[in-house]
Amino acid sequence: MVYEAQLGHPGGDFSSADLLASLYFGVLRFDPKVPNDPRRDRFVMSKGHCTGAFYSALAGAGFFSEDLLDTYMQPMSRLNGHPNRNYLPGVETNTGPLGHGLPVAVGIAIAGQIDGADFRTFVLTGDGEQQEGSNWEAGLTAGHRRLENLTMIIDRNRLQQGARTEDTAGLDPLDDKWRAFGWQVEIIDGHDCQQIYDVLSASPKGRGKPLCVIANTVKGKGVSFMNDNVAWHHGVPNQEQYEQAMRELV
Ligand SMILES: Cc1ncc(C[n+]2csc(CCOP(=O)(O)OP(=O)(O)O)c2C)c(N)n1
Ligand SMILES: [Mg+2]
Question: Shortest CA distance to 124 belongs to which of 46, 199, 22, 192?
Answer without folding.
Answer: 46
